[in-house]
Write a structure and sequence with these properties.
By secondary structure, this protein is α/β, with parallel strands linked by helices. The chain contains eleven helices and eleven strands. The strands form two sheets. Strands 2-1-3-4-5-8-9-10-11 form a nine-stranded mixed β-sheet, sandwiched between helices. Strands 6-7 form a two-stranded antiparallel sheet. Helix 9 crosses helix 11.
Length: 262
């Protein structure tokens, strides 16, 4: 399905984490889409209007950008443009929780992608976040159950990343078993993934398959990158992941993405 992304080359508007904004833009470019990064409230409606998807990431929140996120999300909804939410750190602070609650109330999302603890906050208000990382045990709380509940309650594609990534939508579940644990040692792999999801969803009519293939492409890139540079360290791994995304093909996703749909 990456061939669809590259043939369409969708414009993806990201209001994202300033820690990782450059990596997000490069990941979107590598996968075959085109990034535009704007969080100025006077600018976002015009930018959304020329875009094919909107990617909202709350990693580095401030009051100014929250208003931009809401305004951009509403405009995207008005125009029928898919919106992706990455609720970074949901459950970790009152401000993050209030922002997620407001976004879910005022913007209709196509995909929500998060770790388990962030999705548990969306599901039930459970606070189990350690910084931006999950602090919950997948043996105690089933990612599949949580993903299904959020998907059904909000009418979204719900994607939870972890040891095994889970995607749920309209009774269907996909499990993606690619990726390597070392990816957690690089700031921004989740942020990059959300930009990649936006690129796929902008290009493919089925948001469930688009999201599953986006996760598989990132997982495959992580595996291939680690095999190539594992002796060099995490800085090299970060660059190698973007390299592998730029070389990703439909065949590689099938061979290394390890998607199971049930």
């Amino acid at each position: 399905m990456i061939s669809y992304v590259r043939s369409k080359c969708p414009l993806v508007h990201s209001i994202t984490n300033y820690v990782t904004v450059n990596d997000v833009a490069n990941a979107i470019l590598a996968i075959g889409a085109s990034p535009i990064m704007s969080d100025e409230i006077k600018d976002v409606e015009d930018i959304v209007s020329i875009s094919n998807a909107l990617n909202i990431n709350i990693g580095t929140l401030n009051e100014r950008t929250v208003e931009s996120m809401v305004k951009a999300g509403r405009k995207a909804n008005e125009l029928g443009i898919p919106v992706i939410l990455d609720p970074v750190g949901a459950g970790a602070s009152s401000f993050r929780n209030e922002t997620v609650d407001r976004l879910l109330k005022e913007v209709k999302f196509t995909v929500i992608r998060s770790n388990l603890s962030e999705m548990c906050y969306i599901d039930s208000g459970l606070k189990g976040t350690k910084g931006v990382d999950s602090n919950l045990d997948e043996n105690d709380i089933s990612p599949e159950v949580v993903a299904k509940r959020v998907s059904e309650a909000l009418g979204v594609v719900s994607a939870i990343t972890g040891k095994v990534d889970v995607v749920a939508y309209k009774g269907k579940v996909a499990k993606i078993r690619s990726g390597v644990s070392e990816m957690k040692r690089i700031t921004g792999t989740g942020c990059m993934l959300s930009g990649i999801i936006a690129s796929f969803v902008a290009s493919i009519d089925d948001p469930f398959l688009a999201t599953a293939n986006a996760l598989a492409s990132m997982g495959a890139a992580g595996c291939l990158a680690y095999e190539r540079v594992k002796e060099l360290g995490t800085g090299s791994l970060r660059v190698a992941i973007i390299d592998e995304l730029s070389k990703m093909s439909d065949d590689t996703i099938k061979e290394r993405g390890e998607i199971e749909i049930c």
